[in-house]
């Protein structure tokens, strides 16, 4: 939507205060949804930027994070904070293991660019099937009132405590990642490897360690997105990773592959598009929105919002 | 003896038919893999073909042959629409776009009234004869044998080896990639039409991401250097579940492990170019 039409749409809405309130309320909902998408997509884009592979196991990592958080709450009776940490630890470890088992052996020799992607599909299928065997196909829920249903009124908008937590945590992690990448020695090493792995190796950067740390970090972010989504929609099941993976892909292509700012902006755009299409068109469209957006961007600006075409040749 | 053969045929003819259909699907993904592209939409294309052909024979009373060709043509057309923007780019864009596309198609099957919603289509007429499968497979094998030494086949191989070099040599890479993708969609659609007319029903749940991964596993296990690989891979993997029924829900886990194992330890699959070379040397 062009800014002008957006403003005129808002202008029309001003006729009725109630409609503005609905719009602002949807705005808040979209922010909560979009920030989780962004959190998920940042891990995905980090792997692409540094390891130069598309990890189609990221949705599975997300699902494992959600289940780890759920088990931490229901079996170990942990609170929200420790549960999120457990989810991140479990998902991060899984990310690291997938790198070790599926991606690292392929790094050792020159491989076809499809090989690591297919290897991650193998991992995803394996883990999803195991999760289905362990947990069945039914959906699990967090205990009632796990996050108190308090809500805060900000002008005309009501934000639930849960939405506030989700937005705050997502943005906190995104800021932490960006600061880590740009202000620390570790971040410098990661960016050097992303730029050129051979040169980085020649400069004495332990490239393999950087890959492992990146895989863990990306997995941990995916796990955080998993538990937050699990609490937000209050359904956790073995197949929740698939739809999220599709959205992650749409977000990453929208923002430009391997670009953190792009993942952030793309996540918010997708969140807004979904919420607004459900609110103003039809809920049947929700699943088609991410693909429609993806297709549109491939048609118009395939490199994405922040993408630089022609930089990466092969 | 005759009785034994007849009863064996009745027990296993569906399995035999499925081997042929899966072989066609493996060949459909092989066409895109042969030019270095990954399509995760072939299950969706198969579903489109199954629905199109079944609707035509059930509701319009169309002849089976016409229904099959229409069942191939519709996915091929859709493949052109998806392929043209995504295949202008090299790399992984097709894989990502087809992954999302497969999901949209699944949701569409579930929600449209002409596809019967979540119930799918029941009572599809039994039209598929064994010779239909033999004929289609024969045509495909002829096509792939001819492809190997044709301009088209060599262009795909060049693109697979090095896309930049191929385009510098004057090969219109996008054109060839789009054709390979659309032809693959056509094959998958026809396979879907054939499948619907011997299983007698089309369900919206059969054509999701899991089946797209199955199709990929057929081709990767068999090997993608020659077109025999996908056929061998699909035959093995279609027979395997019959032997592994005891695994129940964990059967898919095995699929994942096979995919991982083959990519890492057997990158050329079971049937590679060397398989034929060695035989030729010996002879």
Please characterize this protein's 3D structure.
Chain A contains twelve helices and two strands. In chain A, 74% of the residues lie in helices and 3% in strands. Chain A has a two-stranded antiparallel sheet. Chain A is mostly helical. Chain A has two domains: 184 residues, no CATH class; 63 residues, no CATH class. The longest helix of chain A is centred in the first third of the chain and has 35 residues. The C terminus of chain A is likely disordered. In chain A, a hairpin with a 2-residue loop joins strand 1 and strand 2. Chain B has 283 residues and is mostly helical. Chain B folds into two domains: 183 residues, no CATH class; 70 residues, no CATH class. Chain B contains twelve helices and two strands, in the order H-H-H-H-E-H-H-H-H-E-H-H-H-H. In chain B, strands 1-2 form a two-stranded antiparallel sheet. In chain B, helix 1 crosses helix 9, helix 2 runs antiparallel to helix 3 and helix 2 runs parallel beside helix 4. The radius of gyration of chain B is 19 Å and the shape is globular. In chain B, 52% of the residues are buried. The mean pLDDT of chain B is 88. At the A-B interface, helix 4, helix 5, helix 10 and helix 12 of A face helix 3, helix 4, helix 9 and helix 11 of B.
The ordered H/E elements of chain A are: HHHHHEEHHHHHHH
Structural category of chain B is mainly alpha
**Major sheet attributes of chain B:** 2 strands, antiparallel
Q: Count of DSSP helices of chain B?
A: 12
Oligomer: heterodimer
**How many beta-strand runs of chain A?**
2
Strand order of the largest sheet of chain B: 1-2
**Count of DSSP strands of chain B:** 2
Give the strand content of chain B: under 5%
> Structural class of the secondary structure composition of chain A?
mainly alpha
Rg of chain B (C-alpha, Å): 19 Å
Q: Give the neighbour order of strands across the main sheet of chain A.
A: 1-2
């Amino acid at each position: 939507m062009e800014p002008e039409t957006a403003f005129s749409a808002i202008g029309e809405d001003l006729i009725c205060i109630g409609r503005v309130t609905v719009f602002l309320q949807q705005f808040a909902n979209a922010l909560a949804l979009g920030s989780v998408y962004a959190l998920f997509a940042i891990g995905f884009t980090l792997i692409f930027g540094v390891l130069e592979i598309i990890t189609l196991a990221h949705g599975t990592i997300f699902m494992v994070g959600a289940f780890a958080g759920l088990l931490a709450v229901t079996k170990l009776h942990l609170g929200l904070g420790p549960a999120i940490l457990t989810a991140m630890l479990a998902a991060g470890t899984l990310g690291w293991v997938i790198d070790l088992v599926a991606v690292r052996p392929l790094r050792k020799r020159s491989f076809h660019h499809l090989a690591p992607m297919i290897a991650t599909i193998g991992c995803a299928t394996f883990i999803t099937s195991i999760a289905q065997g362990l947990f069945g196909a039914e959906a699990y829920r967090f205990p009632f009132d796990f996050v108190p249903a308090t809500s805060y009124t900000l002008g005309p908008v009501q934000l639930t405590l849960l939405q506030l937590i989700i937005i705050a945590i997502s943005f906190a992690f995104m800021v932490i990642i960006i600061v880590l990448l740009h202000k620390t020695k570790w971040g410098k090493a990661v960016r050097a490897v992303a730029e050129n792995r051979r040169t980085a190796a020649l400069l004495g950067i332990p490239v393999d360690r950087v890959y492992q740390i990146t895989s863990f970090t990306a997995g941990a972010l995916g796990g955080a997105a998993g538990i937050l989504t699990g609490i937000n929609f209050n359904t956790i099941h073995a197949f929740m990773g698939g739809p999220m993976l599709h959205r992650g892909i749409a977000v990453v292509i929208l923002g430009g592959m391997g670009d953190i700012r792009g993942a952030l902006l793309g996540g918010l755009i997708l969140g807004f598009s979904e919420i607004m299409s459900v609110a103003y068109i039809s809920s049947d469209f929700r699943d088609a929105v991410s693909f429609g957006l993806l297709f549109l961007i491939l048609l118009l600006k395939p490199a994405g919002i922040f993408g630089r075409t022609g930089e990466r040749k092969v | 003896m005759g009785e034994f053969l007849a009863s064996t045929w009745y027990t296993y003819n569906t399995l035999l038919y499925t081997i042929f259909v899966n072989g066609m699907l493996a060949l459909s993904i092989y066409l895109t893999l042969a030019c270095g592209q990954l399509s995760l939409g072939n299950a969706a294309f198969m579903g489109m073909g199954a629905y199109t052909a079944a609707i035509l024979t059930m509701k319009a009373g169309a002849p089976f042959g016409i229904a099959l060709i229409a069942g191939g043509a519709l996915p091929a057309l859709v493949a052109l629409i998806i392929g043209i923007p995504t295949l202008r780019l090299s790399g992984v864009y097709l894989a990502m776009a087809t992954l999302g596309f497969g999901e949209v198609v699944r949701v569409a099957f579930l929600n449209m009234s002409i596809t019967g919603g979540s119930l799918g289509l029941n009572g599809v007429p039994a039209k598929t004869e064994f010779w239909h499968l033999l004929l289609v497979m024969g045509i495909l094998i002829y096509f792939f044998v001819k492809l190997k030494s044709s301009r088209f086949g060599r262009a795909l191989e060049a693109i697979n080896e090095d896309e930049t070099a191929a385009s510098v040599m004057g090969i219109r890479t996008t054109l060839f990639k789009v054709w390979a993708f659309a032809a693959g969609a056509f094959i998958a659609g026809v396979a879907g039409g054939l499948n619907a007319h011997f299983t007698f029903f089309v369900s919206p749940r059969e054509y999701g991401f899991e089946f797209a991964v199955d199709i990929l596993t057929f081709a990767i296990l068999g090997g993608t250097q020659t077109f025999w690989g996908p056929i061998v891979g699909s035959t093995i993997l279609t027979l395997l579940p019959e032997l592994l029924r005891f695994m129940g829900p964990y059967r898919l886990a095995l699929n994942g492990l096979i995919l991982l194992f083959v990519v890492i330890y057997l990158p050329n699959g079971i049937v590679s170019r060397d398989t034929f070379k060695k035989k030729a040397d010996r002879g």
